[in-house]
Design goal:
With about 290 residues, the chain is mainly alpha-helical. It is built from 10 helices and 4 strands; from the N terminus they run H-E-E-H-H-H-H-H-E-H-H-H-E-H. A two-stranded antiparallel sheet has the order 1-2. It has a two-stranded antiparallel ribbon with strand order 3-4. A hairpin with a 6-residue loop joins strand 1 and strand 2. The longest helix has about 45 residues. It starts with a helix and ends with a helix.
Length: about 290
């Protein structure tokens, strides 16, 4: 019999598979729409050259088309706006959507996990599904805000629905959602303490004071042999403070104190001794005598 954690694991992976399918559908529909837009713009430019009422001028870049037709706001049969550089921005919009879809597919597959954890942590393993759902909703809304064909319409609506589901799952399971659906951590699902603790990746900073080997061992042996005398001497040394006496006591115990290197900023000029400074120092020495 499948346990409660097993049902959660299966449900989250079903949503994960549907998300990948929806992203692949949106990727295919975006490529098809971009190709159709380019064909429509080329046909519009060819018609403008044949008809004097339509003015079409192209720049060095073939996508920078200035298509102006007073009869329509969009190029016929496309999602390209009939305005200066409309083809360029339409193609760029589709390329950005394709790039985002590829990134989301890689995030859902979980490869490369180290890349997302370091450079794009909201799609990594340490975050839940909320950010993923928000991005999916934004992509779906960006496509649904234009007049597109049925294939693109269904793909965008399907992706937007799954984005809402991922947002809901992110609010329920929070940051443990991706761990619960992970295939590699299925054996760790039965741990009584839940997900394993996240260990810090950065190494701890070195202490200022460090013990040396031989002197530290000798001091520890002498303190164990002295017993109560060592405790009394320790209580007496506790009031030595941070001056010269405290430094001597630390050196006797085998500790070394590292001093920071003295340095001045590059913009501070070096002080030069003038005749006035030498005269003042001579006068101070005579007064002291």
């Amino acid at each position: 019999m499948v346990s409660k954690k097993g049902y959660i694991f299966i449900g989250l992976n079903v949503v994960r598979a549907l998300s990948i399918v929806a992203l692949l559908l949106l990727l295919a529909s975006s490529i098809v729409t971009m190709v159709q837009d380019v064909k429509s713009v080329n046909a519009f430019i060819a018609a403008g050259k044949a008809d004097g009422n339509i003015r079409a001028t192209t720049s060095v870049n073939s996508t920078d088309a200035d298509c102006i037709n007073p009869d329509s706001d969009y190029v016929d049969g496309s999602t390209v706006p009939n305005q200066p550089a409309g083809a360029f921005w339409a193609v760029l919009n589709r390329l950005l959507i394709i790039f985002q879809v590829i990134v989301l597919i890689m995030s859902e597959v979980g490869w490369p996990a180290a890349f997302f954890d370091r450079f794009f942590p909201i799609l990594g393993d340490a975050f839940g599904l909320g950010a993923l759902g928000v991005i999916q909703c934004l992509l779906g809304a960006a496509v649904l805000s234009h007049h597109v064909d049925k294939f693109s319409l269904v793909s965008a609506f399907f992706l937007f629905s799954l984005g809402c589901v991922n947002i809901f799952l992110g609010l329920i399971f929070r940051e443990s959602a991706k761990w619960r659906r992970s295939l590699t951590s299925w054996r760790e699902q039965d741990r009584p303490g839940g997900p394993p603790p996240v260990l810090p990746t950065a190494a701890p900073r070195a202490l200022v004071m460090a013990q040396t080997g031989s002197s530290a061992d000798a001091w520890e042996k002498a303190r164990e042999a002295a017993g109560g005398d060592a405790s009394r001497s320790g209580s007496q040394r506790s009031g030595m403070g941070f001056g010269r006496q405290g430094e001597k006591a630390a050196l006797a115990r085998g500790y070394t104190i590292s001093r920071p290197e003295e340095a001045l900023p590059t913009y501070v000029p070096k002080r030069t001794v003038t005749v006035r400074d030498s005269a003042l120092s001579a006068g101070d020495s005579e007064t002291a005598v």
